[in-house]
Fold this sequence. Notes:
Blueprint: E1 5-7, E2 10-12, E3 18-22, E4 29-35, H1 39-56, H2 61-77, H3 79-90, H4 94-117, E5 124-126, E6 140-146, E7 150-153, H5 167-175, E8 179-182, H6 188-204, E9 212-215, H7 220-228, E10 234-238, H8 241-252, E11 260-263, E12 270-272, H9 274-293, E13 305-309, H10 314-326, H11 336-351, E14 356-357, E15 373-378, H12 379-384, E16 396-402, H13 405-414, E17 420-424, H14 427-432, H15 434-441, E18 446-449, E19 488-494, E20 515-517, E21 520-522
Parallel strand pairs: 5-20, 7-8, 7-10, 8-9, 10-11, 12-13, 12-17, 13-16, 15-16, 17-18
Antiparallel strand pairs: 1-2, 3-4, 5-6, 6-19, 14-15, 20-21
Helix pairs in contact: 2-4, 2-6, 3-4, 3-6, 4-5, 9-10, 13-15
The site of NADP nicotinamide-adenine-dinucleotide phosphate has 31 residues, from helix 7 and helix 8.
Amino acid sequence: MTGQHFIGYERSAAGAQIFQGINPATGEKLPLIFHEATLDEVARAVEKAAVASESYRRKSGVEKADFLEKIAVEILSLGDELIQTAAAETALPEARLQGERGRTVGQLRLFAELLREGSWLDARIDTAQPARLPAAKPDLRQMQRPLGPVGVFGASNFPLAFSVAGGDTVSALAAGCPVIFKAHPAHPATCELVAGAISRAAENCGLPDGVFSLVQGAGTEVGMTLVQHPLLKAVGFTGSFRGGKALYDAAVRRPEPIPVYAEMGSTNPVFILPGALRERGESLASALAGSITLGVGQFCTNPGVFVVPDLPETAPFVRSVAEKLSATAPGFMLTGGIRQAYERGIGQLQRVSGTERLTASTPAVESGAVTAQLLRTTAKTAMANPELTDEVFGPASLTIVADDKMQTLAFARSLHGHLTATVHGTPDDLNEYADLIEILETKVGRVVINGFPTGVEVAHAMVHGGPYPATTDSRSTSVGTSAIRRFTRPVCYQDFPENLLPDELKNNNPLDIWRLLDGTWTKGYS
Ligand code: NAP
């Protein structure tokens, strides 16, 4: 049995290099054989996307909403086959995958609602003032327009929600951009099933050939070829820092540089303030251990470091977290490569002088599974060794003990960019550490109070992004409806006759959307 690329509506598998998915729980190769996409297959996918872009970019919000909703229906109609295929390729539990499918389908429907409502286009109208002196003011109208073909890369840890029909694909399609998806080699059969769902939805909606393509590959060449194709206009990436930075560097070196929205790893610092530690240390220890080990720690929002004040309550709190992590059953990671990187990462943390491991068992156990790990160091050591706050992807965390508030603030100031930061405090703590929260706002995309960073709601107000190196562009989010703005740019229409204007900018506002009319938000007429 052979997997196929989707080059628009055409199926193909011309490459000589082959690879197979691997069941991470057994180490066995899975039956479907995939061919690495050839340079020609990648090029044809981008060329078809460029042609499709000419008509797809003109589709109305309602037409694109219908498309997204049909994709959701097609994904659901894949039924158990999708869940079982993803479970075999990732070792993720079926219940988790069912939840992720719900999130993926919900995300498609949320974007469909956004498109039907229409105000996201940020339509602006400045009416003409022909009599203005000393010079007449022209009629100016602005709205967001799609960038063109987008290359999308998904991560291994979300085979549905950050993969073929994940947030990057959905926001690009919603923006009016065709998508060429580079499948993740850790779940190629899952990618193929979802690509089939998108392709069927596109055909049912009568959309142009090339509006969606999927290319498979188990090396860097397919992705690099995609990013360097001259007709590609933007890239959405979720994955490791190494991968995201390599693709970003390749994109900026092109003759025509293009934006790369790479969402990469993060350590998501958690700050536990003195009052919270005294009042609820034990319940915090349980909740923190739960967040560290959720999904074998394979979340980009995993709390990889937590900062505690040096108090009498600190030692019992840290001991309790260590005990809970030690008592957590070993789990299988998504790939052998990720497991090896986890083992290596723990070793590197331990080798930093002044850092010790508090959990007894080694990170990797005989069955091929991994155990949760807790390490401890001081804020002084962490500031002197910034690599201690680099992501170790997996169920591990580093306790950082700070001498006092000044040192806590100094450590926060020393942080590089992360996706999230969390603060646990009583109302008095939060008042006293208001300056900590202000520092953290400059370091992350989402600040959480008295909660945990794992679990990213798909919503209008969500920001899943952050300053470098969490992402390559901190001005955006990859989750939530504002993700659509990554794949559009503003166009201004000056002195256009009414019949040439897009409906969104016509005088009588036929789509009934909110517009900034001469400086005032209104649904009224110009
Ligand atoms: P990954 O190894 O970087 O893979 C992501 C994709 O990029 C794959 O298709 C991979 O293809 C491709 N790729 C990687 N390096 C490349 C290169 N140099 N040139 C061309 N293509 C390249 O990431 P992963 O292991 O799947 O994901 C785990 C990481 O993702 C963790 O660090 C996690 O924190 C992060 N993550 C971030 C978010 C977020 O929203 N910020 C969400 C989930 C996960 P090949 O394997 O074929 O090279």
